[in-house]
Amino acid sequence: NAGVMQNPRHLVRRRGQEARLRCSPMKGHSHVYWYRQLPEEGLKFMVYLQKENIIDESGMPKERFSAEFPKEGPSILRIQQVVRGDSAAYFCASSPPYLPGGNGYTFGSGTRLTVV
Amino acid sequence: AQSVTQLGSHVSVSEGALVLLRCNYSSSVPPYLFWYVQYPNQGLQLLLKYTSAATLVKGINGFEAEFKKSETSFHLTKPSAHMSDAAEYFCAVSLIQGAQKLVFGQGTRLTINP
Q: Looking at the predicted structure, is the pLDDT value of residue A77 above 80?
């Protein structure tokens, strides 16, 4: 039973390029969450998605960032026109649909984005 | 609004000594509380969670935490530190109902001295 799979593990982009981060949830999980960890900081919530639906995007920057979780395939976090400040570790987590909010969820190993 | 404060960004203890990592929270409703551990270049692994059952919660790797409502605290302890405990530890809080997002503290880096 594979865990939450994120790829790539490391991603280097030049300023102005686009970054696409992928997350495949655990089998049976239909809820996906994206968090960002800036250097020397804790994780900050970005967005919460179910299949084909964004539930809560209160932590997403207003510009350049978007997320989707299509009916088929992984969830994608897309960052357009990256800047150096986007350099961070981006973590995805997943949970099944029937768990209440307090049960915690399973994190992937993260994608470490470096903008040069 | 919920928030989490972890006192001490770095904690250093000797191998075999008591580990105490502090976490205080603020929440307008009874919270769920979590401790996660992050090893270098890895994701977060759930150590333990409090979900309004027993106030003393036992987790993996010999860790435990006690929920103290009067002190709004959820400190993490381990009686005897092991070298393999060296990692970053994060305390997090979520609402019992509603959105499932977690609010994390800034983390505490635990170093174990031989």
A: yes
Q: What are residue B97's phi and psi, to 5 degrees?
A: -120, 165
A39 touches B: beta carbon within 8 Å: no
Angular region, A94: left φ>0, alpha ψ -120 to 50, beta rest = beta
Q: Could you tell me if B30 and B43 are in contact, meaning their C-beta atoms sit under 8 angstroms apart?
A: no
* B16: its two tokens: 């075999």
Q: Are residues A74 and A23 in contact, defined by beta-carbon separation less than 8 angstroms?
A: yes
Nearest Cα residue to B98 out of B4, B28, B26: B28
- Residues B29-40: pLDDT tens digits? 778 889 999 998
Nearest to B100 among A41, A42, A101 (CB): A101
In terms of C-beta density within 10 A (0-12 exposed, 13-18 middle, 19 or more buried), how is residue B42 classed? Answer: middle
Residue of A nearest to B41 (CA): A109
CA A32, chain centre distance (Å): 8
| Angstroms from B102 CA to nearest CA on chain A | 7
What one-character-per-residue DSSP string does A44-71 give? EEEEEEETTEEEE-TTS-SSSEEEE--S
Asked if residue A11 has pLDDT above 90, the reply is yes
The amino acid sitting at A101 is: G
* DSSP single-letter state for residue B30: P
Q: Look at residue A93 and tell me whether its pLDDT is greater than 60.
A: yes
A15 phi and psi angles, rounded to 5 deg: -55, 135
